[in-house]
Amino acid sequence: MSKDLFGVCPFATAQRLIQGKWTILILHHLSSGATRFNELQRKMPKMTHATLSKQLKQLESEGLIVRTEYPQIPPKVEYSLSEIGKKFAPVLESIKIWGLEYINYMQAK
Questions:
Q1: Where are the chain's structural domains?
Q2: What are phi and psi of 74, to 5 degrees?
């Protein structure tokens, strides 16, 4: 018997929101400000257009990012962190610090 803890348990909720393979890296890149799709794709290692599009749609549907479409020619679309997405910045900083410590740990082994 498995109970869905999303929206009940803070750890299960956070885990589901950041479970995508590229989620943390996308949030990291967007934390520096609004970014256009192609610019974001250039920053992502070996990510296809379709995969990035799918991940961005998922993050938008979860409310972590905002997609802003500008009515101009050629079309311009930017992605940025939503207000709740911006609150993830301290978590990203903690992940960065821990990641660097882990890299140092592995190099020392």
A1: 10-108
A2: -70, 160
